[in-house]
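Suppose you are handed only two things: the residues of a chain and a line of SMILES describing 2-Ketohexanoic acid. What would the bound structure be? This form records exactly that question and the answer produced for it, so the two can be stored side by side and reused later without any lookup.

QUESTION INPUTS
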Amino acid sequence: MTLTFPTEEQLKALQQAVNLSEIEALGRARLDQNALDYYASGANDGHTHRANREDFSRIRLRPRMLMDVSDVQTGTSVLGLPLDFPVGIAPSAFHGLAHPDAELATARAAAGLGSVMTLSTFSNTPIEDVARAAAGRLWFQLYLYKDREVSAGLVRRAEAAGARALVLTVDTPFVGRREANERHRFNLPPHLQVPNAGSREALAGLETQSGSQLVRHFQGLVDPSLSWRDLDWLKSLSGLPIILKGILTAEDAELAVQHGCHVWVSNHGGRQLDTAVSTIAALPEIADAVAGRMEIYLDGGVSRGTDVLKALALGARAVFLGRPALWGLAAGGEDGVRRVLELLKGEVRLALALSGKQSLGQVGRDLLKM
Ligand SMILES: Cc1cc2nc3c(=O)[nH]c(=O)nc-3n(C[C@H](O)[C@H](O)[C@H](O)COP(=O)(O)O)c2cc1C
Ligand SMILES: CCCCC(=O)C(=O)O
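ANSWER OUTPUT
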């Protein structure tokens, strides 16, 4: 007998899920210890990981009444790409740990919902295949390699495949210490390839003190000397806009703007520097510094429509989902990611209406009780 995936039972459970937490529970139940540790973990004690969520829930709203919200629009655009609602998929490595369709499933779901997917350098699927599945709704995330020619090759491939922006991750000169991965010696199962990040042989041959294969791999390939001076070189490689992912301060936001880059506020889902500021707490000073000169995005802890509105009220143009997309993928492949996006889209619409707004353009700091 061939098993269809997702099964009827999984599809039913997905349809019955009423929020992202319930999909998280479905996704977690389908993962082995290795994958679950990898997806779930934050760095060290997980303070920043938790703070991302907690700081969203602490902000209170000031809804307006009697505003005729019979017609509410959730549409926006990012770098000129129209989005049906202001939510995209953040880059995460190894979607093959969650589902055999891996990044193709995520890309199809994002495209189907009028969202945008950011593909990780460390995907299990080649850029070109994901680009086709994403139907033009693709950004490419870059880790800068010690071997600059490998990175240059990836940038050219991403541009040729139709990616619309480069997302340079700037918060990972070294991998944060995710202790569960160390303890259980995280390993990429042998059937999974990392086609944009060098061969499996390169992966296996790299040795450090760490128990986690991920850390060995990363530290062998990725360049911790990355600095502001490298941005001109990166810009010279393609005509694509560059977004710096991992900005947490006004100082770095100002430098990003001076270098002609857009700003993605992120602490890597609390997986890098533990006790770093939560993203929603970092956003106001960054929005003030950028002052409308470039676009600002945010990720970290987004799980409710009201989180999305709070980020927009404080200056983000769109927000991105890391783990929630992975839980959806594990829970039911493309259908699971689609359900995550659908639920959140419905929540954004309802939260807008209950706040007395007809469109995202009306969302400003006056929505928040600070
Ligand atoms: C399992 C996992 C893998 C990730 N891989 C990458 C990656 O390859 N590149 C990157 O820039 N960020 C990566 N991130 C960080 C996400 O892009 C994002 O910043 C973070 O997950 C957002 O927080 P959230 O999970 O609370 O939504 C990863 C996050 C997770 C959970
Ligand atoms: C080792 C870094 C690649 C994936 C990543 O960014 C993460 O696990 O957070």
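WHAT STANDS OUT: The mean pLDDT is 95. The radius of gyration is 20 Å.
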